[in-house]
Amino acid sequence: MTSLSLSYKQNHRWIRGYGLHLLKNLTVPLTQGPKHVLFAVCDHYEPLWGGASAAHGRDRVARWEREYPVLANEFRDADGQPPRHTFFFPGEQYSTDYLASLGRLARAGLGEVELHLHHDGDDASKLDYDIRSYLAAYVEHGHLSRDADGRPRYAFIHGNWCLANSRRDGRYCGVDSELRVLFDTGCYADFTFPSAPDETQPGIVNQIYWPTGDPHHARSHESGVRARVGEAMVDRILMIQGPLALAPRPGRLGLRIESAAVTARDPGTASRTDTWVSQGIHLEGRPEWLFVKTHTHGAPDAQADSLLGEPGRDMHRALRRYNDGKKFVLHYVSAREMFNIALAGMHGLRGDPNHFRDHFLPPPPVAA
User: Are 335 and 189 a contacting pair, CB within 8 Å?
Assistant: First the structure.
């Protein structure tokens, strides 16, 4: 667990934003009818994590192809959908075998592939070139959505959390204008955060928002405007954050930092799911739709043991409490579907969010 000293591991960067979030939640109007819980697992999916060999990486991916359908078959949301896993695959670990295997999971309706990227000491032109190269490789396997003009569109998670050169020492990125490069190459939304207690955590907490900082400056996502019904921007990417909170330590005194990271040592328990949902992340004007974006690193063996075993099943059993049809309705969504539903809300649509999974961006060809 992490100490709450405001000088320790940069907690001062987000505590104020968290306090503002709690105050804002006090003013959220009551809603009639059930609340819709949109639940996404965004996996920083790195088969070669820990210096694994290519063969070990293939074994890790094959395990997910073999065991994830077994787990997913045991659970359904209110729409009859199984858990939907979004594999944010690192471009620098590209392999035909890995993408083909993930394509078979996508074809079975169990997940989608998006872009994850680790880079260091980069510049904007090289980053643009590399991203377009990775996207072209993913497209060959039928991954990634397409817009009306056939252009590949993608969601993004930055390796080491360092979006737009977020570290003070400039490591693990190097590109101040990264948000502009992402937008220009077809990115529709960033799912990197939260990253607390890391120094890369922005001051904005528990929001879906449009970044408004200078896109040529580092950490341009540090300022933004909350996404709301009736307003949708078309000249920048959307920031979709997962829950960040101070929560009781299980079985102990004091508080812990809850950043929605599902790990082998910290699996998705009933108390954690309660914390995630209770943060009430929503669009301004649509408080009945609750966005719960969790993240994990599913490929390493210990994590896979947990996610594909009983701890993973326990998380989905806990989520059943949010699918009683009276107070809550559960929807398993991919990152793309979460974005589509958010955009539908901004476009003024209401009601059952299941109708808006493909509102703007269609499923990738491999899953269509």
Answer: yes
